[in-house]
Amino acid sequence: MLENPLVSVIIPTYNRPDFLCELIESLSRQTYSRLEVIVVNDGGERVDFVRELYPEMNLRVVDMPSNRKHVHARNRGLMEVSGEIIMLCDDDDLLLPGHVERMLKELQDSDLVYSDVEIFDYVVENGVRRATNRFVFAYEHDVEAMRRFSTFVSSGCLYRRELHDVLGPFDTEMYHYWDWDFFLRAVERYRVKRVPVASALYAFSNQGDNMSGNLEDMRPYLDKLSAKHDLGYLPTKNFFLLLEEPEVKSRKASTQVLWDGEPVVSRRRRGEL
C-alpha cells in the first residue's frame, strides 16, 4: 500500500442535514487528513452548504436526480472515487478522531478492515444529538458465524478500491442487507479483519427511521440474501432480541472503548449552544 494514501469517503444522505454535518465535523477532526469526502445527495434537500462550512476539506456534493435509495447512492459515489482506499459512512454515524489513522495501519496486512462500534440512542437539543443510552457492539470475527448473524458494521470500514474490480458494485437487490452481502462476498476472496476498538459511533434511535425497524419489509431481502449465499433459513427477529440469542452472546469480545459520551457539535450548530 502506498504511503499516505488518499482515502475516499462515500456518504449517501437524504434529508438529514444536521446529522450529516455532525459526521463531517467528526471527519474534520481526524488525525489523518488525506481524505476525499464524497457526499451523495439522494434526491433530497440541497446540502451544498457543507462545502462552505468546511472549506478546508476536500469535499464535494454529488446530486442524484431522484431518490433511488441508499445502495444506488453508494454506487454513484463509487463512480467519483479517486483514492486507493475507500471508507464507507452512513450520514447519521460518527467517527472518533484517531479512527482513520488506526484503520489504515491495520489495513497494511489486510484488504478490508472494520471496527467495533458503540451504538447510541439520543435526543436532539438545538439541532444537536445528545446520547441518552449507549452500548458496545463488539464480537469475534468468526466467518462461519457471520453467515447466521452479521456483526459487520459498514460505517467506518476501510478497504482497497481494487476489491470492486472483482466484486463489482454494491448489490442494489439487497436493499436491507447490502452490507452483509458485501462482507460475505469480500471474505470469500480477500483478507478481512476486525479491529477491536470501538471508534465508530452507530446511531440507532427508537424514534428515528432506522431501516431495520420493519421486520415484514425485511423478510424478502433476507430470503434473497440467503439464496444468494446458501445461508439456509434466517430469522427476522428484532435486532435487540437477536443480540440475546445464546450463540450471539457467546461471540461477544473485549474491545477498547474511547468515546467520552460528549456530542459532536458541527459548525452549523456551534453558535446556537
Explain what the structure shows.
The protein is α/β, with parallel strands linked by helices and 273 residues long. Helix content is 29%, strand content 25%. It contains ten helices and ten strands. Strand 2, helix 2 and strand 3 form a beta-alpha-beta unit. It is globular and about 50 Å long. The model has no long low-confidence stretch (mean pLDDT 94).
Topology:
Blueprint: E1 7-13, H1 17-28, E2 35-41, H2 49-53, E3 58-63, H3 70-78, E4 85-88, E5 94-95, H4 99-106, E6 112-125, E7 128-137, H5 143-146, E8 158-160, H6 163-167, H7 178-189, E9 192-203, H8 215-229, H9 239-243, H10 246-249, E10 256-257
Parallel strand pairs: 1-2, 1-4, 2-3, 6-9, 9-10
Antiparallel strand pairs: 4-8, 5-9, 6-7, 6-8
- For this structure, the quaternary state is single chain
Helix count, DSSP H or I runs of 4 or more residues: 10
Uncertain residue ranges: none
- Characterize the overall form: globular
- Our Rg estimate from Cα atoms comes to 18 Å
Helix amount: 25-40%
Distance between the termini: 43 Å
Going by helix content, strand content and strand pairing, the class is: alpha/beta
Average residue pLDDT: 94
Order of helices and strands: EHEHEHEEHEEHEHHEHHHE
Number of strands: 10
Q: Estimate the strand proportion.
A: 15-25%
List the defining traits of the structure above.
single chain, 273 residues, ten-stranded mixed β-sheet
Task: Provide a quick synopsis of the model.
The protein is 29% helix and 25% strand. The protein is built from ten helices and ten strands.
